[in-house]
Amino acid sequence: MPEKDPTNWPIAAWLLALIMALLGGLIDQWVKYKQGHPRDFRWMESLAKVCVSGFVGMGAFMALEAWWPPGVCAAASGMAGYMGIEVLTLMRTGVAVRIKDLSHHRETDDDRLN
Asked: Taking the domains of the chain in order of start, what are their residue ranges?
């Protein structure tokens, strides 16, 4: 299916996903600022968080594009961008749990063989 190949996506789809992800990160930072988040506002920290939001949002767009229309994927990109670092933490936790389950399963298989 050539339409699912990222090299064949139009530039507008890439830009839409990136803009949605970056806007999600900016909105997250703005909401925290307006709520009087206990930490002082720092430009470089906010820029870094927006960049992470862009990365996470683009990853979400690329992962979902195989199954969903580009508009839905762009919306998911914005939501993933809003969540930013929390998405990476959830993924890391999920992978760690999966590895632990696999290693436990392997240990029980080895015990049965011996």
From this structure: 9-84
